[in-house]
Amino acid sequence: MKTNKAIMLTIAVAGMLNTQSIFAGDRTKCGDIEYENIYKHFVGTIGKDKVVIDLRWGYCGGSNNGGSFFYNSATKDFRYLMIQEPLSYAHNVQLKASEYRIDDNYYSQSHAEVPHWNFFIQGNKLTGTWRSADGKDTLAINLTEDYSNATPLEIMAYGQEIKKGKAKYSQDVHYSFIGVKPADDMKTRDAEFISNIMLQQANGTSVNAASWADYPKAQGRKDINTYKDNYKPDWPTKNVGYHKAYCHHSMFPMYNENGILVTEYTYYNDSSNGRSFRNIDVANKKILTTADILTPDKATLTTLLRNEYNNVKTPENIEKIPADNIVPTENIIITHNGIAFNYPQTSNCSSEVWVFLSYDQLKPILTQNFRDKMKI
């Protein structure tokens, strides 16, 4: 894995993914500049609490397009870590970011309501200070880049634009991909297995991608050609002066510990968006399902899900889905402290509900193999 020069970051800590890209500074290239697109896995402490961060940032879409996740041993949830673009090309830059719970409304959070971090990355160390939202409490941040219990990954990115009309600030048709691939120093068999899962998750065969490494360009060819074939000069511009058509794809780890890699694939374009998850047992070369995690006791799981939903539901969630519709689903994410069950209410995932059950809640129906793997 590559190491980086010292980078100072300022992070605001708070709940939903903001997918608006930030393209800042004098930048003309994407994906080829050392240190500009990176993925690092850090383990350590903030104060006395164990912390794990899957940190991703870079020019191709900024980490506002996802890719950075954070989990703390003292909290049951895990969160998006939102890092904004630096204002320059410099390797030694200050970044700003926010951490959001996956089940909260991003727009309900105020910058003043959340904790903030200031830290440096130097070599394989991430150190700094955590400050509470009111500024009264501070904790030391001490993390080390560590893949002993995680899958080493690297960034891959690709973008393409074409100009068909007279867009003022950008091209009429824009395609971008940013995500991860197995690191070059991974075991060949593990790397091939993970790459094949990612290719399947992104439906790469539909664009004739020969491999995961080939997928970004293959998907780009399909998206760009589709837009070119259907382009109309009188298409309305979605944002004044910007793209008339765009499509973005990404693939990032949501959890990367205990030999389990949870991947999130997302796409969005000017008319739709979507998302899918895979829970990958790297050592045993399989995709984990609820049958691998839980005993076949559907009644108990249903009761646990509905009780938790009734405890945490909000008026907004009630409108999305009634409690009677909360049933066991395979749309799950394995996390450090429990299982997150996802209930999308529209095909493009613009409306969804999360129900989180901790391992303590699930203990009576956890399989022994899963307990052993997660050290429960």
Automatic annotation (TrEMBL):
Residues 1-24 form the signal peptide. It comes from the Bacteria. Keywords: Signal. This is DUF3298 domain-containing protein.
